[in-house]
Design goal:
There is one protein chain. It is built from ten helices and 13 strands. The protein is α+β, with helices and mostly antiparallel strands and about 325 residues long. The protein has two domains: about 210 residues, no CATH class; about 110 residues, no CATH class. Helix 1 crosses helix 4. The longest helix has 18 residues.
Length: about 325
C-alpha cells in the first residue's frame, strides 16, 4: 500500500508546485476591488479560494486525498480513513501542550495552526499506527509512525541533503498523549545543527484548514513558488520576504552553466518594457522549470512589483501578521 501511495505522490509532487504567491495576489486584487477602507476591516471577511495548481500545504493535502482514492479498490476503507490533520510548528513546552487538554482546544488562542498534512490511521498486526503525507514540506514518501516504534516505523530519515544544508526528520507518537505525533527536525548548516519540534494532532480530522491555515498563510511574511522533482527536491523557485524596504526576491533555476540563485529587485519589474533582456531570459528559463504558461512568471513578478510598491498595503499586511504572531505567543 505504501509503495503504491508513494508512486502516486512522487508524480503529484512534480505536477503540483508549492505556491504561496498566487493566494497573496488574489488577496490584493480582491481587497482593491472591495469598498473596505483598510485591510484590517476586510481581512476577517475574506474567504480565500483554493485554486487548481496554485496550492499551499492546504490545497496540496486536499489533492493528496483526491489522488489516493484510486487505492480504494485494492484497500477498501482507505477513502474514509484519510483526513486532513493540523500541525503546530515550533512547540515551546511539549509536556504542557500535550497534557493540559486531550486535544489542542485549550491552545487555540495561542496557536497558529500554520500547517496541514494528510493522515491515515492503520493497524499492522493489531498494532496502532498512522501514515502521514506532507507534500507541503516536499516529502514525497509516506511516513509510517507506529505507536510502539517498531517495524514498519520509519524513524529518522534524511529529507534533503544539499551542499549548504541537510535536513533530517523523525516522527513519533507522543508518550503522554497518543493524539499527537511529534515531528522532530534537525537542520545542519556549516557544521551547526539546529533542532525544531512541531506537533501534529492526529486524533481528529481538521475541519478549518481553509478558514484558519490557508488564511494564516495569506499574511505570512515569506512567500514562495516552488517546483520539485519526484523525490521532493527543489528544481526551481522564486521566494521573498514581504518587507517595507530593500524589496527583492531570489530566483533559483538551472541554466546551461549550472544552478543559478539570483537576487533581483522588485522595482525592476514595475514596467515590463524596461526589464533588461538578460533578466527576461533568466525569468523565461525559471518560468519553464516551474512549468508555467509562457510569460506567466513575468506577469506574476510584474503584479508582485505593483503590490510591493504599495507601501500602505505592505505596512497593513505586516501589521496583521505581527498581531497574529503576538496573539499566538500569548502576548
Amino acid at each position: 500500500m505504501v509503495a503504491k501511495a508513494e508512486a502516486l505522490l512522487s508524480r503529484l509532487v512534480v505536477s503540483e508546485n508549492y505556491d504561496s504567491v498566487n493566494n497573496f495576489l488574489s488577496l490584493y486584487d480582491t481587497y482593491m476591488a472591495s469598498p473596505d477602507e483598510d485591510l484590517e476591516t476586510f481581512f476577517p471577511k475574506y474567504n480565500p479560494p483554493i485554486r487548481a495548481h496554485k496550492h499551499t500545504c492546504v490545497g496540496l493535502a486536499m489533492e493528496v486525498m483526491k489522488r489516493l482514492r484510486v487505492l480504494e479498490k485494492d484497500y477498501p476503507g482507505i477513502t474514509k480513513s484519510m483526513m486532513l490533520v493540523s500541525c503546530d510548528e515550533n512547540i515551546q513546552d511539549l509536556l504542557d501542550y500535550t497534557t493540559s487538554f486531550p486535544g489542542p482546544q485549550g491552545f487555540l488562542i495561542e496557536t497558529e495552526k500554520d500547517h496541514v498534512m494528510v493522515a491515515i490511521h492503520v493497524k499492522v498486526g493489531g498494532r496502532a499506527g498512522v501514515f502521514l503525507s506532507d507534500l507541503g514540506y516536499h516529502i514525497s514518501r509516506v511516513v509510517t509512525v507506529m505507536a510502539d516504534r517498531c517495524y514498519p516505523h520509519t524513524g529518522w530519515f534524511t529529507q534533503s541533503d544539499e551542499p549548504h544544508c541537510r535536513k533530517d526528520y523523525n516522527y513519533q507518537f507522543n508518550a503522554h498523549n497518543n493524539g499527537y505525533v511529534e515531528w522532530h527536525e534537525r537542520e545542519t548548516r556549516a557544521g551547526v545543527t539546529k533542532e525544531r519540534l512541531s506537533l501534529v494532532y492526529v486524533a481528529k480530522s481538521y475541519m478549518t484548514a481553509i478558514s484558519v491555515t490557508e488564511k494564516r498563510n495569506l499574511i505570512w511574511d515569506l512567500r514562495s513558488l516552488l517546483a520539485r522533482d519526484p523525490k521532493g527536491h527543489l528544481t526551481a523557485s522564486i521566494y521573498f520576504h514581504v518587507k517595507k524596504k530593500d524589496q527583492q526576491f531570489t530566483m533559483f533555476f538551472d541554466s546551461n552553466s549550472g544552478k543559478q540563485r539570483k537576487k533581483l529587485k522588485f522595482e525592476t519589474f514595475l514596467e515590463l518594457q524596461k526589464i533588461p533582456d538578460d533578466v527576461v531570459e533568466d525569468v523565461d528559463q525559471c518560468n519553464d522549470q516551474l512549468r508555467l504558461r509562457d510569460g506567466e512568471l513575468l506577469s506574476i513578478l510584474n503584479r508582485l512589483a505593483t503590490i510591493m510598491a504599495d507601501q500602505e498595503y505592505v505596512s497593513e499586511v505586516l501589521e496583521i501578521n505581527d498581531k497574529v504572531v503576538q496573539l499566538s505567543a500569548g502576548n
